């Protein structure tokens, strides 16, 4: 019984059940509106896996939301709802683009510099929310939403500044080549072009995509954050404050400092995500008609991952895969691609219900004679 | 000068109406102790359902009503998660936003075949069918939805200030255990309040697409639900204050439209101002936001 | 005994389980109408559970309830209220920012069309009750602004407003001064004279002797006996309650005082409402001394402790430990200056419930070199220390170092806190309500520990609302009223009546 309850209680099981229910509900909706779910799903999976290039594209799309997911999940551990992750991402893109255009150091300095700029900008932007919460008690959901919009308009403002605006377009100049992603620079170099010419797989997977090192950085960040939370004094403090800020304060922990620190770190991760998008994919800042939702999608990723930083890697890949493959549904069979939104929404909703399962576990345990879990 | 002022008033009332529906709905939910971050999703499904139902039935009022029902159904999900399953209310709210957005786009795609719908045959009416009746003040021929929102505010104020239902809802939001000990059904009261908030949010969405615009576009509801939430806090959880906060945001929006004529640069700054202003006002005046004590905390018997 | 009409309440075979824990095991009880009947038991004996079932807040798994001779299925409080049962809870069931009138009428509002509340009618009904039983309250005052004694009166009016004939009072005297307790007794007698039945749940032997005619004793969920209060002594009641001989007095060797180690000078501290809660408080504690502060809750004790531990700013005045000023620095600084605190609310302020015992043990010390190196937590060291403390303080279960602390009983949770605080080797130990909600065994242990630490030369500041605890444990007793220390006495030189008078703001001659 103990093994069963341990399995039932694990985050992973919740996620699997939630995903299953998501597919089920979406299938029902499809059926009700006259489409064959099995047909739709087979197109979906074909669109995801049938070519190596597709898989690479999924990985590329996943990297930014894995990072924003980690940002949100990290703050969640401390009981903070970092809905401002979208704005922190945008600020990261702005800083990266500005630094990338203004400076032109050799690439071994420029590339880290651009990333650093985005990271710092995101961190500071997040820290403002943290400060307002810590010192004035203003709820971070409100400041988060407000700052998202402020960053959004600020971005468009920068794009239209003469110094940055590329005439005849709705974008800035491209950032200087020294700041571009190493993989991109390699594939544009003499050596790279040679390899691409000769190797079909590399041509498919790197030549025809925006392949970049974002995923590697995302994985490193996930592992680092996981380590910090589990093993370091910073992680201990953050978890204590997240679980009981009164006891933490009485024990001498500085709650205000921790709140600000958390937003600083979460914002930095989101800012890094933005910077990586600039260096790896867009190479310039675009004028936006609407928020791109890299931040908000990070929320879904974090929730699907049950709040676990490492889980965000898998949840991010799942999310990206479903949205990428889902795009082909409209083309191939005429069913609305928005079914994917319903699918993902259902998965997140199921994860939100997760507190139900411990209640079931208690009942199982009680019959076996163990103490209440609460 | 007068015409500019009248235009400003007219636009303010117009833009604040969807917010008012959403915020008043959010207020009711919060007063009963359930945080409703899912207003955005409920407004969106209302916007989409309103247009779809109006188109299919030919009557904007049918659309309006169906929008409310759609919002209420969405809220039912939130209620089940937050009240019966005792889920984290913020997380549930986010999930509702996702589902609402997805379902809205899906619905519109099914009914119209595209994400930007054609205009509805008939919009929701204004107070007077012929504006010229008011002469120079023709701009003040407000939409019916604006009037409904205003009356709604008065009704809600009355309920909370004078009636036993208002007292009971407040008690459930402040100290549910007390309400329970006196024989009140905490779960039932919360369910009713959450579903009502969804109904109102749905009406708010429809008041955007059936009254201000005349069709649905994916960006019809972009952030309005969150602004409505801010209005609840701004208004210190009081019906009149919440309504005035919505007017404030409506005014900000109207100013952006009227002043943002100039070069492309300044329009961005102007667009930013409402949000900057909100943060400043929050910091200076509202400070520590104190809502109903039990808000956001699931109740366990 | 048969079911009879002249018995207000009779319960038969009541059994209630929470999971595998049996709170009540086939309990019978008979309460005659027009009497004051007390239910005695330790914390956790099942008294509140039994009465919650009578009031419909809980439902029994087995058993029957008879009210005035008729069988009633008390499904929920509404049914109980219909049958004339009212309950005044231990932790008041009042909405803080409602007025007294609103609290009284909630759920039973008089209306005049469209659901509008008829305030005048309600007020009249309330005033009638106030006059009849002498329960003086102002219906328009807001709850969070009135005294605890008045809040209790509101609770009683609430029950009477609903037509209660049978009143259940759960630990009614826990928060009252001796004078207020006398007032309450008068009110209870008036109710009984009017034909009503009063049931008091309590663990206070003295109050039972003062007020009740009969006493039913429960122990660990089982019915033990019902006795005529006039025919038993406090000792006998205590023995019945615990099941063994109980020493009601704390064993203490005479005090050996050292020099002054802790001093408070003219302290002024504001509360949440920006009003002074501590007004010119002066205090001195010597090494080897237990100073107990006697006072009614709400006279500045909370703000005093928060000011000392730096969870609240000090407006004026000084707090000195070993001659060093510690006011307005930081909680961390206070701890580093060898001031340890057992806070009033152990679950909210004392522990992180979801952390393991080991994680809670290092809550104040995780940054120190013993438990962390270069920012990495040394988990084995923490676990090792936890194991050591578990053994030393007899914390149960004895392998709980890696279990979440929320699974431990109240007494064991308190032991974890005490263990952690004493590890700091403090010069001053502050104990606020250290035995609240604990059973006799745990209480004895904590009292013994406090005396032990005092014998080791520590200074102990004890704040408790149980006057007995203060009078038994303290070497020196200080009375707090309206934010200042009114007077200080050596143990044994003052009686309870005089202290009670001072606690309520009265003046003593001489």
Task: Provide a descriptive summary of the structure in words.
The complex is a heterotrimer of chains A (374), B (301) and C (510). Chain A is mainly α. In chain A, 77% of the residues lie in helices and 0% in strands. Chain A has 2 domains: 1-35 and 335-374, no CATH class; 52-333, ABC transporter involved in vitamin B12 uptake, BtuC. The two termini of chain A are 18 Å apart. With 301 residues, chain B is mostly helical. Chain B has a single domain, classed as ABC transporter involved in vitamin B12 uptake, BtuC, CATH 1.10.3470. The model of chain B has no long low-confidence stretch (mean pLDDT 87). In chain C, strands 6-7-8-3-9-10 form a 6-stranded mixed sheet, with helices on both faces. The longest helix of chain C is centred in the middle third of the chain and has 16 residues, at 178-193. Chain C is globular. Chains A and C meet through helix 12 and helix 13 of A and helix 10, helix 11 and strand 18 of C.
The CATH first-level class of the largest domain in chain A comes to: Mainly Alpha
Q: On the 0-100 scale, what is the average pLDDT of chain B?
A: 87
Order of helices and strands of chain A: HHHHHHHHHHHHHHHHHH
- Tally the beta strands of chain A: 0
Q: What structural category arises from helix and sheet content of chain B?
A: mainly alpha
Q: Can you give the helix content of chain B as a percent range?
A: over 70%
Fraction of helical residues of chain A:
over 70%
Q: What is the number of E strands of chain B?
A: 0
Largest interface: A-B, 46 and 47 residues
Here the CATH topology of the largest domain in chain A equals ABC transporter involved in vitamin B12 uptake, BtuC
Total domains of chain A: 2
Query: Per the principal axes of the C-alpha atoms, what is the gross shape of chain A?
Result: globular
CATH fold field value of chain B: ABC transporter involved in vitamin B12 uptake, BtuC
